[in-house]
Design brief:
With 517 residues, this protein is an alpha/beta fold. 39% of the residues lie in helices and 20% in strands. The protein has 18 helices and 24 strands. β2 and β3 form a beta hairpin. α15 crosses α18. The chain is globular. The N and C termini lie far apart (48 Å).
């Protein structure tokens, strides 16, 4: 992002450790983002349903993005007094007795290798009871405890050496300070967390055969983990002694940064995975649609959501597999390749000439008939152009989120406008598509892609004593566009949604059959 002129004073670095890479952002004491820089890393797919990353790649991305940030901003490292972090969820990083990383590649949140472990567990433990206690509404095998079972079953020697299993952002905090701990928001995705008690469940740990000691100590999201070590400071180009604040899981940090830190506030995240979330003092639980719930970084609150697992990832898949021409052009001009794609899509009419896309490239969610749901286009015809296929992809991702919105509306009031954050909020065409398909006003503010980073920075600001609370966040949002739905487009999409839902159920049935081949 363009740098703002920095003035002398206290500064905060926030890291947004996402599925696709790490973004390092610099904030002043008022919460203004002065500059940011991004370093990507790879996800590896060594087997069907396996999604792995290297924890050392996370650390290297933090180091590299921070170095670029310091260079671009020209900030004096002496001014940086605190740091905070947001991290992608459900990490399963094994740490040994001597503090060593025991597995070079570790499963990330979307990894489905432990589906069988979950199925076996629920033969002896009531699955609905587990969901209602934990709020873990993703496919159960995605959650940390079941991946730990997979380690125990398939890599027993490694598992015997394991002292702690920690998450993504907690690994970075460990590298920064040498202390192993987590916060309630991240712990709530471990599979053995009691939402209402804000603590690990002894009952679930006993049922799964785990000792409490395997799980990290839990401290507040705004608590200081420790002071940055001299070794970590040298790697990052910072001074030793910077306050390292615990931070939180990406869903909760993003909720905070997107102003969803008060009762009933909602937002729409448009990132690698895309979700609609509501913050409240009571978790939104439903055994049929399975909203997934994280304990908030804000004490006493929960962030409840439904998602499309491959939202932005599905759009990126199209870019990587079918839009090489745009990628090459973007390298020559310095433009964003996604801008090329959305300009092309704008040539296609509403409905993409009766072409529908289902974005479930990462599999189904519990709200679907089957986890074996996979993505597909339906209605392909010789008339269709590349513009139609791109627009259908954008519309399909949005219709997947509309399905989530429809289910959330059955559980709580959402209101008549939706704040968009994340990379998908950048496109004016896509913002109009969201407004038309949702049938509600869509708001874009200056924060857009900085929501999770702002949430992490806010935790650091409170933890370091710069802010007394989070109230400052509302004032940081400045509306840049307010998009109203176009009535005739709304009418068309409402009809198409019926077809989309039928298409989704059909793909679930087909996916089940394909899984048996």
């Amino acid at each position: 992002m363009p740098e703002k002129e920095a003035v002398m004073g206290k500064k905060i670095i926030a890291w947004d450790l996402g599925t696709g890479g790490n973004k390092a952002s610099l904030y002043d004491e008022e919460g203004n983002c002065l500059a940011s820089d991004f370093t990507s890393y790879n996800t590896y797919y060594p087997a069907h349903g396996w999604h792995e990353q290297r924890p050392e790649d996370w650390w290297n991305a933090v180091v590299q993005s921070t170095a670029k940030l310091l260079k671009r901003s020209g900030v004096d490292p002496e001014e940086i007094i605190a740091c905070g972090i947001s991290g992608h969820s459900l990490g399963t990083v094994p740490i040994g007795e001597d503090g060593e990383l025991l597995r070079e590649y570790t499963p990330i949140w979307s990894d489905g290798r432990a589906i069988k472990e979950a199925d076996e567990f629920f033969k002896t433990y009531d699955e609905k009871k587990w969901y209602q206690m934990t709020g873990n509404g993703f496919t159960a095998g995605f959650y940390t405890a079941f991946k730990m079972m997979w380690y125990r079953n398939h890599e027993p020697e490694m598992f015997k050496k394991t002292k702690k299993i920690i998450g993504t952002k907690d690994y970075i905090n460990y590298k920064l300070t040498g202390r192993i701990c987590t916060d309630p928001s991240y712990a709530s995705g471990c599979g053995v967390w009691n939402l209402l008690k804000w603590d690990y469940s002894d009952e679930l740990m006993d049922a799964m055969g785990f000792d409490r000691d395997l799980f990290p100590e839990v401290i507040k999201s705004t608590e200081v983990v420790g002071l940055m070590s001299e070794e970590a400071a040298r790697c990052l180009g910072l001074k030793a002694g910077v306050k390292v604040v615990c931070g939180g899981v990406d869903n909760s940090c993003m909720a905070l940064g997107a102003k969803a830190f008060k009762e009933g506030r909602a937002y729409n995240s448009l990132g690698s995975s895309s979700w609609i979330a509501v913050s409240s003092t009571e978790p939104l639980l439903d055994v049929n649609t399975r909203p997934y719930v994280f304990t908030h970084v804000v004490p006493g609150f929960y962030a409840s959501a439904l998602c499309v697992t491959a939202g932005g990832t599905a759009f990126r898949w199209f870019r990587d597999q079918l839009a090489h021409e745009f990628t090459a052009a973007a390298k020559e001009t310095g433009e964003d390749e996604y801008d090329y794609m959305t300009r092309e899509a704008s040539k296609s009419p509403v409905g993409a000439n009766r072409l529908i896309f289902n974005p479930s490239l990462g599999g189904g969610m519990p709200m679907n008939k089957s986890y074996n749901l996979r993505g597909s286009y339906i209605g392909l015809d010789l008339i269709h152009t590349r513009a139609d296929v791109i627009r259908a992809t954008m519309e399909g991702i949005t219709m997947g989120l509309r399905s989530c919105l429809d289910e959330i509306r059955k559980l709580t009031s959402v209101g008549d406008e939706m704040l968009l954050v994340g990379g998908g909020s950048k496109s004016s065409l896509w913002r109009q598509i969201y407004a038309d398909i949702y049938g509600m006003n869509v708001v874009k503010t200056n924060i857009d892609q900085q929501a999770a980073a702002l949430g992490a920075a806010a935790c650091a600001a409170v933890g370091a004593g710069i802010w007394k609370d989070f109230e400052r966040i509302d004032a940081l949002h400045q509306v840049e566009e307010y998009v109203k739905p176009i009535p005739e487009n709304m009418e068309f999409y409402n009809k198409e949604m019926d077809l989309y839902n039928q298409f989704t159920d059909m793909l679930c049935d087909m996916g089940d059959q394909l899984a048996k081949l």
